[in-house]
Amino acid sequence: MASRDLVCRDFRDALGSFATGVTVLTAVDQDGQPMGVTISSFNSVSLDPPLIIWSLSAHSPRLEAFRRASFYAVNVLTASQQGISDCFAATDNSDRFDGVATSRGIGGIPLIEGCSAWFECANEVQYPGGDHLVFLGRVQRFARGDSNEPLIFHGGCYRQLRATARESR
Fold first, then answer.
1. Which residues of 24-58 are buried (b: 16+ CB within 10 A; e: fewer)?
2. What's the pTM?
3. How many of the other CB atoms lie within 10 Å of CB of 129?
4. Furthest-apart CA pair in the chain: how many Å?
5. Region for residue 107 given its phi and psi (left: phi exceeds 0; alpha: psi -120 to 50; beta: otherwise)
6. Which of 72, 120, 62, 63 is nearest to 92 (CA)?
């Protein structure tokens, strides 16, 4: 392995020390077909106006479709939705929505049922960010689900919370 590849792997492993929630970004493409991808690069930016940020690899086959989408949704997955995360992270071109219950949001975007939260966003602006494209979304609508147990990714694998800080004292 080349020295640069080792540095990149070490950098990626160090970034993996930061626990993140797992989300599926969904939209409809130019032909009106649903599309989605698993990401963990989601975060809040601003409360007023309500803005979120996420990024997608410049090598993703879905990059151009997300870049052109007028709206997209951030579906915040629960601990019981690991299978959905795996499905939308797969590299094959199978229909990712087979067997996944959805409803329709703004502009027909798919909203995955059973999530802990949903953020329906207007595709505000994108910025180049190295080997990724960074998306800034203006939240148009949001909702919270019933589950409080998030799907978490840390150290290269899924994790679960044991207890909140107050409960563990």
1. bbbbbeeeeebbbbbbbbbeeeeeeebbbbbbbee
2. 0.89
3. 13
4. 53
5. left
6. 62
Q: Letter for the amino acid at 118? A: W
Using the structure block, give the residue that is written with the tokens 């626990």: 19
Long-range contacts from 88-95, C-beta under 8 angstroms, 24+ separation? 88/24, 88/36, 88/37, 88/38, 89/37, 89/38, 93/61
Q: CA-to-CA distance for 94 and 88, rounded, in angstroms? A: 10
Q: Is 92 exposed, middle or buried (0-12, 13-18, 19+ CB in 10 A)?
A: exposed
- Residue 68's SS3 state is helix
Nearest to 28 by CA among 58, 73, 76: 73
What pLDDT, in 10s, does the model give residues 4-17? 666 687 887 887 77
pLDDT of 38-92, one tens digit each? 998 999 999 999 999 999 999 999 999 999 999 999 999 999 999 999 999 988 7
